[in-house]
Amino acid sequence: MSGLFSFFRPAPPPALRAATAEDAPALAALHAASFHLPWDTAEFERLLADRLSRGVVATDGPRGEPVGFLLARGVWPETEILSIAVAPRRRGHGIGRQLIDHAFGRLAAEGFTTVFLEVEDGNIAARTLYERTGFREIGRREGYYRTASGVPAAAIAMRRDIA
Which tens digit of pLDDT belongs to each residue from 114-131? Predict the structure, then answer.
């Protein structure tokens, strides 16, 4: 019986930590599960090696596998979220918000004051997350993205002050 009950046991809360170059393959896999034009491991290695980048990883417990990440890049006092992704099996449990809150605490401690991002207009889940965490739309780029079916979609530019 214990096996059956363990199936229904909720996932442990994620542990949050700074991303490292060793995380690149796992982050590439999470990105591929989240976007139709995924970044490869080499792109994550390049970004994580860049001194202007900041990354946060959510893992299944302190030693668990990565289940989400946030990657930002910028020059003080402004930065931009380049990508945020959560494993499909862990979506809807607040991990995206935890990643944002954790990253913004670290960024504010470093003196960053403003965060920007762009999101595809049709990505309702991401837009909802960003709006709930204080981002506001500041502009649009029509036809910037291509959806998985090839249809043009607008990029929504958003901003949030963190200091």
Answer: 999 999 999 999 999 999
